[in-house]
Design goal:
Length: 501
């Protein structure tokens, strides 16, 4: 009988993988993994991405700030909602904004912070150069090239996040004459940081292009070449300078790959270096901006050391107050204007309208949870379609109700009478027909219901509450809720009339 083989002893690389799994580098967060999966799914609904981002109000504010920046929104079309950002910019661009922000969230103290800043600055510079090259040569998804380039050296970024004293030792050893950085890594750590990157890329399934690149570094297709060229440009600018002979060779390679003249290619690379610096500031990574070398022609005495006006460096919005989102009438007005704009464009449908309305109720009125449920044509079953807010996945799974023969309840009364309802504790205590499962979902707290009506036919219901934060639902909140429901009804009826016409 064969004896079971003893487990293989852990290598130093395995030990580091364990360390990173236990730490909280934001790019390895479960939420970020969901965004990666969405970026690979061409059929993913807008609500999935919106729900992930909207779960964190401060993160939402930063995504919207970037969505309105000149880099992503050169037409200056006002974007007030994540739903609208996905429509205007595309799901890939919004995923990239979210993923890059997550990477910038890493906080490092001590001597390693400088090295992390250098790595991040180089990664952002490389990613911007690669994306522009991809765009010029007509790549199918320049945003995918951007993310793959940004995360190629994720092992290096992770190491400088968590390296501590070991990172300081590696920094000193790497400066030893005659010793390459890779040799220093092997001598001190027992592995190369590129190996750590490869392991992380595969374990976290970061992107197909990225996995293909690290598995086949000598592969010669345009996408892999573009990614590699972005890194070569960023490293050469840092180590040799923009006027070096090596940079001239890279300018020539860029010209060939992008089918440009050499002068046009040079101008393009110089402009992207400037854009990378601005982008770092926009993302709140101003600490990395000084490590993005600027061509002499783009420097200005009145600018900061990295060639970007220090007065425009982005600051992170203050976190939202504890206990849930506050009501925000300005946000309500902005979202209602976006709803009107979408209807005027004649290219929206029920899904887009309802996702925008849900975001308006969630962020504008300040709900903890908001849900849209569809009813079957015979009005016997109501089932959740979209939800935002706290524990929204559970809400989606459990918000399903069947009308019992000869009976009704508050939910189906709302559909039958086509009237909104504020269901408070008094309703429940007086024996009003609130389904037990709905009372359980609402945690016996006050909630709001409103029918969704298209051409006088009730097709579903809106639900909203503040149960998790235990805040009250006042009459003003109910009036605002009814207003959003009314706008949804008018918009959907307008779409139906347009389709029939």
């Amino acid at each position: 009988m064969n004896k079971p083989q003893p487990p293989k002893p852990k290598t130093k690389l395995d030990t580091w993988m364990d360390l990173i799994r236990q730490q909280k580098m934001p790019v390895f967060d479960a939420t970020v993994q969901k965004i990666f999966r969405l970026s690979r799914d061409d059929k993913a609904p807008l609500s999935d991405l919106a729900g992930i981002i909207l779960h964190d109000p401060a993160f939402t504010a930063r995504v919207l700030k970037l969505a309105n920046s000149i880099h992503y929104n050169p037409s200056s079309t006002a974007i007030s909602t994540i739903t609208r950002a996905v429509i205007v910019l595309g799901i890939n661009a919004v995923c990239n904004i979210s993923l890059t922000l997550s990477l910038v969230e890493a906080t490092i103290e001590g001597a390693a912070k400088q090295r992390f800043a250098r790595e991040l600055g180089r990664a952002m510079h490389a990613a911007v150069q690669a994306r522009r090259l991809a765009m010029v040569r007509g790549d199918k998804s320049p945003e995918e090239v951007f993310i793959a380039t940004l995360l190629t050296r994720i092992g290096e970024l992770a190491f400088w996040c968590f390296g501590g004293e070991l990172g300081e030792q590696l920094e000193r050893l790497s400066n030893t004459p005659g010793l390459s950085p890779e040799q220093a890594q092997e001598r001190l750590l027992g592995f190369r940081l590129s190996q750590l990157s490869r392991q992380l890329i595969h374990e976290w399934h970061l992107t197909e292009l990225l996995q293909d690149t690290v598995d086949h570094p000598t592969k010669r297709n345009d996408r892999v070449l573009t990614l590699a060229l972005g890194h070569q440009i960023a490293r050469c600018a840092e180590e040799k300078g923009w006027q070096s002979a090596d940079m001239e060779k890279l300018v020539n390679k860029s010209a060939i790959l992008a089918a440009l003249s050499k002068n046009d290619a040079r101008s393009m690379l110089h402009e992207e270096a400037k854009q990378a610096c601005i982008m770092a500031a926009d993302y709140g990574a101003e600490f990395a901006a000084p490590y993005i070398p600027q061509p002499a022609s783009s420097r200005d005495r009145n600018q900061g050391s990295a060639g970007v006006d220090t007065s425009v460096l982005a600051s992170k919005p203050a976190p939202p107050p504890a206990g849930g989102l506050p009501s925000d009438h300005l946000t309500q007005m902005k979202i209602l204007r976006e709803l009107a704009t979408l209807l005027a464009e004649e290219r929206c449908d029920l899904n887009v309208i309802m996702e925008l309305v849900l975001e308006g109720i969630y962020r504008g009125i300040g709900m903890d949870r908001v849900l849209f449920a569809l009813t079957t044509p015979d009005k016997r079953i109501v089932k959740a379609k979209y939800a935002l807010g706290v524990d929204n996945e559970r809400l989606m799974q459990e918000f399903q109700f069947v009308r019992a023969p000869g009976q009704t309840n508050i939910l189906f009364e709302t559909l039958d009478r086509k009237l909104p309802r504020l269901v408070n504790a008094r309703d429940q205590e007086s024996g009003a027909a609130v389904p037990e499962s709905l009372e359980h979902l609402a945690n016996s707290a006050t909630f709001m219901l409103a029918p969704i009506i298209v051409s006088n036919q009730c097709i579903g219901v809106l639900y909203a509450d503040r149960s998790p934060s235990k805040r009250t639902l006042d009459p003003t909140s109910f009036q605002d809720f009814k207003h959003f429901a009314h706008q949804a009804n008018m918009g959907l009826t307008q779409i139906r009339s347009r389709q029939r016409g």
